[in-house]
């Protein structure tokens, strides 16, 4: 932490700050400059004490230096974390695709989509049983019935299941039926939910909030790790800006930014990240090219009649075509992608 | 809803869209233009079906017309709603101030601050027993012990208590001890929490999320009303922008915007809205001047040693000075403000 | 400037940074911490050298400490600057209102509006002869003819004129006909234009860009002062966010932020800042209450037929009503406002 | 255009709007809905008249339907535009890389970098002779001397030159010495400059502003085309958000968005778009993968001593490695990239 004094701060004020620093058991390192004095602080815990010093007489501003996250940090654990969802490793050499419908609508729909995406090379099945919807009057998901359908689809296809939980009870159920618990963007700072996920036996897919900084995103992951669950996968899904052409602004630069400071794997969600079907394939290719560990994509066999988020879902055929493109891009970054199933003939 | 066709969309495409509209039981109203055709849709429910039409051949875009909120809308209830927190009416003639510490730290601290703000004219006591903190390592609040302290402070001062709940169990407790349940900005789209609040017997203070549009803000309130609790107070507390001089950007224009479309009262939180003590008084005056129904302000008798958000708390003395200014501004908008307690002498 | 080393940076890396600092003639002040070392830099000029150090081996980040602006800074000139536009002092005790049509359309229109706003208490006449329009096909202003009309309106009413220049030739003309040169938000970082304004004999009204930080806003003013023109008035007119209810987000907190670090006066433009007529009065009151030095407001006697920005213009009658409200709010901040003209009877 | 009436708008109000529409020579198409009436408007010119109707009694809102841009629109010209910079086609099959130093510092520096990037496969040389700098005290470029150096480097290497002009006089000079005129992000809505570029004989590279919507971006291009210069290349270089890890947020989704509505080519600037050297390669790969027509990249042989923007410049060696990756990604989108020069031996 660095405490910057105002120009013309008096000796008494400077000594006051030094004393305040030392009173908390930290060390003060005054740096007298030509224009003003700054005081380095060491021995403190992250940015927690920043407020205190900001209000002392003569202080212009306090600049935090150390980041508050620890367990998620690459400084603590230099090597990449590989999270296993069912039997699928996320964050390793393979570029992993989770695909499926936005919402689980029926067993038939879910099976149709699951088989389609599996044939094309998806390794995980995504699908919502509990849907966080802006409107209380919109379809809210099938609930436990939806989870049962997902479990059946997994038995049929072998694809491990990723699905969202909205609250503590939801985590109980998702833990029982699925292979990874998704925390949605709107709940990224629902700290009760994060803590509950930190006690879960299943990995957690944590989506970045619409206005979350990298620091906040990682601190939310830290909540989960701090409770003992180290199996966390991050997911970029777009931030909110003034954009007039996409629902959100997919911030692909967060991928190398995460890789630089954290050991956790990160996926990209091009479906929510753009909100428009015609941008899903380009941004999926972009995500692979910037170095993401995989994708989570919405696929629906009849997107125009989907109960939820139809306009951002692509068809199984479009998904298969996208997979072909990804198979060419992934190797440039030293990644593999499974081959599509060969149709018997 | 208006479906806009591409330039040069064929007759077949236009008829396809008309048929799709009618197939859902709505009415189609084609408007042939010089450059392109648009098709009005009536009989639909809000924006829910927008996705479906966006993907039909020949469609350029679909423009929603009706807002999705109903119960919070002034079209449904033209007259202002007055919410009673304890015996204090919010949204009526009085400009109401909720004040108190960011976090409840001890009985003594809470009582000291509560007495101070009451003497200056505050009508409600605010203070956090459960604190949503970015870092899992920061002070998280005293929990139920904090709620007991707040209840004691209410008995001592007569000030009804507003305090935050972070989850369903928190609502149970806050409902028991306090007079209004606060839902924080980070939980504005925690729909499980909103639904639980919709069943609560106490009024709800709903804070706007950091990236929430007005539509989303009102839809979150709608969740609460839709469950049967009509006692909702909105609260603007700043949105996230690129600002380099305040923690958030306090969006005071949302006050007249809410007043235009909704009957619910709206407070302003200048403390979180700026994050800087020296901006609390100016933005509080600004909030009164734009027509807010009141404020929720952080006050601490020793802000520099506060366990939480010290740099945005003002002292009881600064608060009393602010109240004096507000007493001069509020009448310009036809509002009253209680006089300060007269010290006996 | 503070150079923060990575955890585990080697002694050699630290010495390398120290040497790089000293090689540029600055002083290095290493601060060894428990987790990592930081190195204070003194003797440097603002943030200019930041890039250089950021790339040295072992460096985590470089944190600038000193702001790059000088002449606009309150540290250099503690007392408020009062800028005279014609005979009207801006930044002194008086809360000054500039009012008039968005665009000058005709002599009659301009005179009608000018007389109306003068009668209500406006002290400056605003109106565009050169209009920066998003579309090349929209009305672009009357040009020099518009400037002549404004000059005539000044002779008739005695109101000094503020009007926008879009380029160097425009400044030549505006300088000749008007009393203050407006630099629009879109040109806030048109450095050629700023330099030309710095050589002008007339004061400059500099509008904040839609995505400008406070630092950038003040640096743009610094461009003008650095060329020798110290007569600069700042103007907040809204920043761009995701707002769905106003064209821009009027950032009133920038007013106290400017006052804290700069001696320059600052006005608020509630017309462009909201883009909606019904928000002009509330946000004008808000601007007065936060401590702005005045307003610049669009008034049109027939806003619905205005050639430009009609929906954000208010009528002379609405303007007079607003002035009445401002007369009650301004004194709370120790400000005066001229009385309206008494109609002879 | 669609005029939406308030719920309960009277017949008289509706007829008033219809009459106002017809009075302007447009056609009105009332669409009576269950909840409210909307009135389609045809025959109007884009969004220009929107303001007028918004203020009529009973009107809730006016929704523009037609976009205001014409010449840049794919509806007007369906096939892709290929712009020739010198002899290099931009927007065709080749993925084109412009590379070079941020600022021209000396002939030697420029030649060294130009030879390096040419050897690696760059097709255009970029470099600033006029630098728009936030601070008036920062290095502002060598001016005409810089242009002469660029011209010499072109003669030496054969690489056509792209360089920025800041004002009308700058365009005169750039037109004389260089092969394409760059309009920077800060000048995207400097309409005088755009008009001057519209009369230029050389192609224009137009960078997106930091807060520009797609509509505004294309309207600025429209200014240039409207003056007769159809040789416009768009360039995404990041928008401003709350990001805490990159200087700007590179909005790669704008690439497919532009491709969908406009025939103009679009490049991506990963250097300014991220502001950080370590993100240049990932975001360059991402730009190629989403379908951009090329890149404009800052390369410096000694980035740590660069006079401008060093921390976002990469070395010639890093650039050559990036080119190798791009050569593998481009073909996935049917693009070619020139091979690197073979070193003789």
Structural description of this entry:
The structure is a homotetramer of 345-residue chains. Chain A is of the alpha/beta class. Chain A folds into 2 domains: 62 residues, Phospho-2-dehydro-3-deoxyheptonate aldolase, domain 1 (Alpha-Beta Plaits, 2-Layer Sandwich), CATH 3.30.70; 251 residues, Aldolase class I (TIM Barrel, Alpha-Beta Barrel). Chain A contains 11 helices and 14 strands. Chain A has an 8-stranded parallel barrel, surrounded by 7 helices. Chain A has a 4-stranded antiparallel sheet with strand order 2-3-1-4. In chain A, strand 2 and strand 3 form a beta hairpin. In chain A, helix 3 packs parallel to helix 4 and helix 6 crosses helix 7. The longest helix of chain A is centred in the first third of the chain and has 14 residues. The radius of gyration of chain A is 23 Å and the shape is elongated. The mean pLDDT of chain A is 91. Chains C and D meet through helix 2, helix 6 and helix 7 of C and helix 2, helix 6 and helix 7 of D.
